[in-house]
Task: inverse folding
């Protein structure tokens, strides 16, 4: 395993410690790593430093409160925090509600096994590698889309991004949830 | 659920994941994704892309007192409960805008037996529910922007194809179409548009400002 793979699994374990033991030390480490990134992400999306600071705190509080809703067989901790930050950004900057897809009601009966988690977190690493290896022009387009500088009509209908493998993994995790819900 | 044939495209999924689409579009996309695991998996792949951006961003230092203030808020906070299964015949994101079940929709007749209910969203685009009796044609219209039409009940056909429950049609400005509800039950759709519809016949054009369609 590369260092980065270890890192993703360590963050997953931190969230589990918060979920199971309200572990403040684990939260402090997650905070030190992610809060400054969330703040920077918000500032790049057009928030001033004060608002970005507030929203970043809010995102971290949400992480604590929703630790039991995180599915590590389907998302990395970075991805999960990204989705929370994005939703809070819509609320704070645009003052709009963010309709979200119906929750799949994931509970203990659907808990992914350790092997699924390791495989998924490795796949998240492979995705990060594939994105880093894209031509600078394409990476620039992704950044402009995610930081709000590109309207949907300016995003190419077929983006041609290397998302096929991670999509297949997520699809398997969804099938597992559907099965457990029956 | 596997019967869904018409899906979202990458541009809309990426825009929804990035959080840059109008609220009206988000309602339609969240509703389709609630019904379609294939698009849910594609969407979450785009979310994973957003996660890689968060990994790569340069850090902006937090205030010294931030962590302590977070811990104070946490001490006073309750855990968010696991959401209960919704008691509604509509997908959860749509139920939230309608305020309950299909029966709770306040329909208004707009002529030709067709009814609509406009949902309250921000003004950059509009979203409404449409109820079209079986066999009835929708007014002939073209589009100045993008229009998304998601079928909830029944089905319609146009020059392109047949659209049944869960199917989404994505139309742009080059697209003049004549959707007709299939004979039988009412066709109920959720439709979002980022520009007012442009009707090609006189009467609906006069009625358009009045009914906000």
Result:
């Amino acid at each position: 395993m590369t260092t980065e793979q270890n890192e993703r699994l360590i963050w997953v374990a931190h969230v589990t410690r918060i979920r199971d033991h309200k572990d403040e030390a684990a939260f402090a480490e997650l905070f030190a790593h992610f809060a400054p990134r969330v703040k920077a992400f918000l500032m790049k999306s057009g928030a001033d430093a004060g608002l970005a600071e507030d929203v970043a705190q809010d995102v971290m509080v949400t992480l604590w409160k929703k630790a039991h809703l995180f599915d590590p067989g389907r998302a990395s901790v970075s991805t999960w925090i990204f989705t929370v930050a994005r939703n809070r950004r819509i609320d704070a900057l645009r003052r709009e509600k963010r309709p979200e897809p119906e929750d799949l009601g994931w509970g203990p009966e659907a808990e992914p096994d350790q092997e699924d988690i390791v495989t998924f977190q490795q796949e998240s690493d492979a995705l990060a590698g594939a994105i880093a290896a894209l031509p600078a022009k394409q990476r620039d387009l992704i950044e402009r889309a995610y930081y709000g500088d590109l309207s949907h009509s300016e995003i190419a209908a077929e983006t041609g991004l290397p998302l096929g493998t991670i999509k297949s993994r997520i699809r398997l995790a969804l099938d597992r949830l559907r099965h457990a819900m029956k | 659920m596997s019967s869904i044939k018409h899906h979202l495209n990458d541009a809309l999924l990426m825009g929804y994941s990035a959080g840059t689409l109008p609220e009206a579009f988000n309602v339609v996309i969240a509703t389709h994704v609630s019904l379609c695991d294939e698009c849910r998996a594609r969407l979450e792949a785009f979310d994973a892309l957003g996660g890689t951006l968060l990994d790569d961003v340069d850090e902006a230092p937090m205030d010294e007192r931030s962590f302590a203030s977070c811990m104070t808020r946490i001490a006073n906070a309750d855990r968010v409960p696991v959401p209960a299964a919704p008691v509604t015949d509509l997908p959860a994101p749509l139920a939230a805008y309608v305020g309950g079940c299909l029966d709770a929709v306040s329909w208004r007749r707009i002529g030709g037996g067709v009814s609509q209910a406009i949902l309250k969203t921000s003004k950059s685009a509009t979203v409404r529910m449409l109820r079209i009796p079986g066999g009835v044609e929708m007014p002939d219209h073209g589009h100045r922007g993008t229009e998304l039409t998601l079928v909830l009940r029944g089905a319609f056909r146009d020059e392109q194809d047949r659209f049944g429950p869960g199917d989404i049609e994505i139309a742009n400005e080059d697209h003049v179409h004549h959707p007709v509800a299939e004979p039988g039950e009412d066709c109920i759709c959720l439709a979002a548009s980022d520009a007012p519809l442009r009707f090609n016949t006189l009467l609906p054009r006069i009625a358009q400002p009045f009914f906000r369609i």
About this structure: The mean pLDDT of chain A is 91.
